[in-house]
Amino acid sequence: MQDTELHATVGERLRAVGQRYTPVRRAVVDVLVATARPVSMVELLDAGSGLAQSSVYRSLGVLEEAGVVHRMLGPDGLARHELAEALTEHHHHLVCTSCGTVEDVPASLRLEQTVARAVAQAAAATGFRPQTHRLDLVGVCARCD
Ligand SMILES: [Zn+2]
Ligand SMILES: [Zn+2]
Fold first, then answer.
1. 1-89 architecture in CATH?
2. 108 CA to middle of ligand 2, Å?
3. Which ligand approaches the C-alpha of residue 75 most closely?
């Protein structure tokens, strides 16, 4: 998605929940586009110079409610935020338990097909209606190893 298209989509999603696309919210989205992986509050503030923690915190809550931002927990139990897959693309995560970094890893077609079969079997066995999946590989990254 081009940046202009992305910002237009974010604006629409915010309006749909009765919110405005304020400069702070836009700056937060810009940082998440630039970092392109789930970032902690510290990483986000480092990357977005001049942003106040309290306003970033509130912005993330609103963006999450609008379905723009996805929140996950890092290996340290602290939140990480990234753009929602609806605005980027489906991917998985490499989670480093040593330094806490979470990297995106592209989802291969072959892995997706295997996961889809496993999901279909689980759905048939349980009556569960799957909508999506999340796959985080937890371990130690190349820098820490
Ligand atoms: Zn690491
Ligand atoms: Zn996948």
1. Orthogonal Bundle (1.10)
2. 8
3. 1
For residue 83, give every residue at least 6 positions away whose Cβ sits within 8 Å of its Cβ, in sequence order, or none.
29, 32, 33, 68, 69, 70
| Other beta carbons less than 10 A from residue 109's beta carbon | 7
Q: What is the pTM of this model?
A: 0.89
Which ligand minimizes its atom distance to the CA of 90? 2
Centre of ligand 1 from the C-alpha of residue 74, in Å: 12
Longest dimension (CA), the chain: 52
Decide if 1-89 and 91-145 have a common fold.
Answer: no
Ligand nearest to the CA of 132: 2
**91-145 CATH fold:** Dna Ligase; domain 1 (3.30.1490)
How much distance in Å is there from the Cα of 38 to the middle of ligand 1? 14
| Average pLDDT, integer, range 74-95 | 95
Ranges of each domain in the chain: 1-89, 91-145
For the residues 95-103, what does the mean pLDDT come to? 96
AA identity, residue 56:
V
